[in-house]
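Quick one before lunch.
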Amino acid sequence: MNHQERHTVTGLVILMMVLWGGFILHKAPSFPGSFVGSIIGIIATFFMFIPLLYMFVKRSKRLKDRFTKWMKMSTFLKWHIYAGIIGPILALIHTGHRFDSLVGIVLTLLMLLVVLSGFIGRYLLAQISTGMREKKKLSFNLLEQYESYSKQVKPSFAKNTAAYLPFFFKKMSLAFAGASSEEMTLLKLADSISDVEYSIKMHETVKLWFKRWLKFHIVISIILYIIIIFHIFSEFYFGLRWL
Ligand code: HEM
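Model of the protoporphyrin IX containing FE complex:
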């Protein structure tokens, strides 16, 4: 996720939350069923179904092969994200802050939850895609250096330096014990290896969280779609006021 995307998406999410909070001050009960209100609702629904299309394309090999001929999946994910926020913003305008029925309230809260969860997931995904290959390569190079160094140096610090001390104190204690510069380099290498290994472990943890998050995001989205369809049917069934 680049800076511009992060700022735009964050700004839109804030706008959505402010719009939602507007119900404290404003209410236009006749707006959702009016001509303009209904058109906004229809456009909102159109935007909100783009993420569903994304799911179908991502999960069907045939669709994906065809689709990726004219749009990369990473670009489609951007469409998903922007449509997934603009749709709910329009849907909030469509409500006119008339939160009278249970369906209306549940639909609105679930929609906000889906967008907020998407926002968190985007952040997790960005953490995953940053430089795992480089980290593994770096860890491999450091280990190689460490092995070749440890063959040349017979370290004495292992005995006189408490293993649990932070790097800075270990370094001080080594310097006081009169360790050679090679021993110091070995310590530095060991410290760097543990840092890189930690960051690789964190990466795996984030990946696991992302998998769990994706399941949650999909489940609440599907519930949202079911309620949207129910809402649309009931609006047509009871008749749109402007028709
Ligand atoms: C109406 C709102 C939204 C709906 C209904 C929705 C729905 C979905 C669905 C069904 C998936 C599953 C795709 C799959 O793996 O098959 C998904 C994935 C995802 N969504 Fe959303 N989403 C919405 C909004 C957002 C927003 C606002 C963001 C980010 C700010 C977002 C970020 C993501 C990300 C990062 C993935 C994972 C993509 C991947 O791994 O390919 N979503 N969304």
